[in-house]
Each structure stands twice: as structure tokens, then as C-alpha cells.
Amino acid sequence: MSVATTAQLKAEEIKPKIGSRVLNSKEELLSGEIARDIRDLLEARGVLVFPKIGFTDEEQIAFTKTLGTFAPERAGGAEEISKITLDVKENPSSAEYLKGSLYWHIDGTRNDVPILASLLSCKVPSPKGTGNTGFANTYSAYDDLPEDKKAEYEQYRVIHGPWASLFYYEPEPSLAKLQGYAGIGEQELPLVWKHQSGRKSLVIGCTAAAVVGKTPLESAMIIHGLRDWATGPEFTYSHEWDVGDLVMWDNTGTMHRAEAYDPTCGRMMHRTKLEGEEPFE
Ligand code: OGA
Ligand code: MN
Asked: Which residue range or ranges hold the TauD/TfdA-like domain (predicted)?
């Protein structure tokens, strides 16, 4: 009689405080048998790399669905892949907004329930030395703060909006452009997210405009001081892409950014996302 075997998660750590490489085959990943373990590892490690896994779009969508609820790019949209590139020819509708992705950020700070995770696969890499994707573990960054700072920061609320990130790449926008960004919305969020699991993470990044009740300078010191802390070497991992790599990040406990690349170099990533499961609180 044959005994049915189930796939076991095979993974190795990249850095002590962030990142693991998952070494299972495509078939094992698509079987869904290790989906629960992958979700747990994602929360524990912030970023998971599936080196040269070479998913097709259909396989990426199917794998995403084994892990949770597929999040379409737009409300009510189809279950499809989003093209991530700064090339306006390839991406006329969102290349402009993706300029903000060159700075540390969390996806979906406009929503009450931000997406749980994003999965990015590399179709065409940029030349080596450009276009890495950086990740920072905002759980670890919070955990390693001194106790008095934790107590202070837990009290703060921060206004976030895409308009704040506009100034990173266009310091002197026209009023019409600023009004356009303002129309996307803004939202007040806690600086420290107290997760249902009991863990806590920092909610910062280039969408953070101001700490409520602070002067502009005090506010900038808090927001930029924490970004500087959280993006220090021990909390970060920079992924250099090869064709076929898939990288998934926990959007609730990390920040990320694209490192600079030539928008016309052909760099092309395909993204899927998982629907969020808990509000910022
Ligand atoms: C994103 C993003 C970074 C990159 O897809 O949300 O920020 O390296 N991408 O392209
Ligand atoms: Mn992003």
C-alpha cells in the first residue's frame, strides 16, 4: 500500500531579522499543501523569495489564491496581473503614481484595511546594480526601540496621503496636480499598528504627511527619524532580481521601495495581491 506524502516547507533565512528563501518546487507551491506554512513564514520573516520559480501569469494567480483572497487591482476589477514598470509606454495609467514607489512605503495606506501581501515576479530585470527592491521589517524595527520611545510613539496618529509622496519626486507641483493627488484621499492612521496577533509594527513611509498635534518640524523628526531607524542595515534586505524570481512581502509588517532604474530599460514586474484581513488599529 502506498502512503500519501504531503509537501514540506523548505526554507532558509536570508538575514537574521528579515527575509527567507523558499526552495520548494513550483508543483509543491501550486498544490496548496504548504500554503498555511508559507503564510506563517511570511508573517515571521516579512519577505519571502522564491528564486527563479518562473511562474506564468496563470500560475502566479493560482499560487496567490492558495494563500488567501485574491485582491483585484481596482475594486470590482478582474482577477488579473498588474504590470509594474516606470515606463509610460508600457504603463500609461500608473507609471506616474509608481514614481512614489521609489521611496519607502506601505501599499494601500488610503484604505482602512490595507492589502495583506503583494507578490512580484520578474519578467525583465533592469541592469545589475539598478532596480533592486528594498524591504524593511517594521515589526523588528518597532521591537528594537527603547521602551520609553515605544510608549511615546504608541500615542501618535499620522495623516497619510498620496499627495505627501508627490513632493518626493516633484517638489514644486502645480496647484492643479496637487489638487488631483488630494482628490485620491487621505487618512489618519496610528503610528504603531497593534495587530490582532499581539505584535506591533510601525506605519510610516512616504505617504506619511504629519503627526497630529505636532509642529511641522517635530512631525518631520518623528516620521523621518523612524524611517531612518527602520531602514537601517539590520532591518532591511535588498533583492537583486533575476528573471523568474518571485518575491512576496507582508505589507502589514514591512515597507518596501524600488531602487532607482532607467524607466526605459525594459524592467517589467508582474504583481498580484492578497486582500487585507485586518484594519490599521
Ligand atoms: C509595488 C512596488 C517595487 C518595485 O509593486 O507595490 O512598490 O521594485 N514595487 O517595483
Ligand atoms: Mn509598492
From this structure: 12-272
Q: What is the CATH number of the domain that holds 267?
A: 3.60.130.10
User: At residue 162, what are phi and psi to the nearest 5 degrees?
Assistant: -55, -25
Mutate to test the pocket of ligand 1, among 64, 101, 251 (most ligand atoms within 8 A of CB): 101
For the Cβ of 101 lying below 6 angstroms from any atom of ligand 1, the answer is yes
3-state secondary structure of 32: coil
As a whole number of angstroms, the distance between CA 242 and CA 29 comes to 19
* Nearest atom in ligand 1 to 85's CA: 10
Backbone phi, psi, residue 273, to 5°: -140, 155
Q: What digits encode the pLDDT tens for the residues 33-89? A: 999 999 999 999 999 999 999 999 999 999 999 999 999 887 777 778 999 999 999
Is 216 contained in some domain?
yes
Q: How many domains does the chain have?
A: 1
Ligand 1 contact via 84 beta carbon (within 6 Å): yes
Q: Do the domain assignments include residue 1? A: no
What are the cell numbers at 53? 520559480
The H helix count followed by the E strand count for the chain is 9, 15
Q: Return phi, psi of residue 134, to 5°.
A: -95, 145
Supply the DSSP string of 223-256, one letter for each residue. HHHHHHHHTSGGGEEEEPP-TT-EEEEETTTEEE
| Structural domain range at position 201 | 11-274
- In the reported structure, the alpha carbon of residue 62 is separated from the centroid of ligand 2 by a whole-number distance in angstroms of 21
Please name the residues in contact with 111: beta carbons below 8 A apart, sequence gap of 6 or more. 187, 276
The structure's pTM equals: 0.95
User: Mind giving me the DSSP string for 74-116?
Assistant: STT--S-PEEE-S-TTT-TTTHHHHGGGGS-B-TTTTSSS--S
122 found inside a domain = yes
